[in-house]
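Box S2. Input/output pair 1.
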Amino acid sequence: MRVLSAAGRALINRIKAGEQVGWVQLVQMDLTAPLRLVTAGRDMQWAGETWHTAGVGVIDPIEDGTGELQGLSFTMPGVDQTQLALVLSEPVEGKPVRVWDALVNPDNGQIEEAVLAWFGTLNVPSIADGPEAVVTVTAEHYGVQAVRPKARRYTNEWQQRLYPGDTSLNFDPATDAAPLAWPKASYFKR
């Protein structure tokens, strides 16, 4: 359960009272230099960082439910040459990505509260070239790692992890096996 700050609770109460309160999504991709994007029409400040509007065009809707863990797709239309160079030069696969849902105070236009809505890892981006380059990056939910089958090794290390002190798999045929002695040819000539 997440506890909201006093400012966040005040905005929730205003929503319950029927007032229109805006919300945006904040996206942070933890690349070499963290990329912070906001779905608003202008740059915004939150948690001491500047979240830039240039970039995220479309984010798949985050659906809360049971069953399959949802992946996301981030489409960034109209990227410039520096952003395109970053996508082409940096290995983004496996890098963390976070999405927050943030409430915007209608009085001053500032983000008052943000709640982590989704966390996962990035996949390889795809680029559609044309008059305006479009970069699409997919990401899989962090929980997928928990349900993915784990490789089991029939080794001493695996056995020690499961049953400390058990030496049943502590065997190396090259050093532990007795040398095999074949009888001399005269043994068979009796």
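Box S3. Input/output pair 2.
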Amino acid sequence: VMITDWKYSGIGSPTDDLAMLLLSSISGNKRQKYTKDILKRYHSSFISKLKTCHGVDVSREFPDYDYTTFLKSYDTQW
């Protein structure tokens, strides 16, 4: 990824980035069929990497951030 115009850059929700990636790289039919699976795998990998690489136990330190909350965040964005 390369930023080409700084006026549109900023801090935002990671679910926005995921949605843009899925919208720009997967056909509509496949996106409808596989989005929930992709999001589940992403969330699981993200939580795992936070623990193994950074020692962050998300379930203990951020108990309100579970897969359901993550999915709601994604769904409200799109």
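Caption for Box S3: The two ends are 22 Å apart (CA to CA). The chain has a mean pLDDT of 88.
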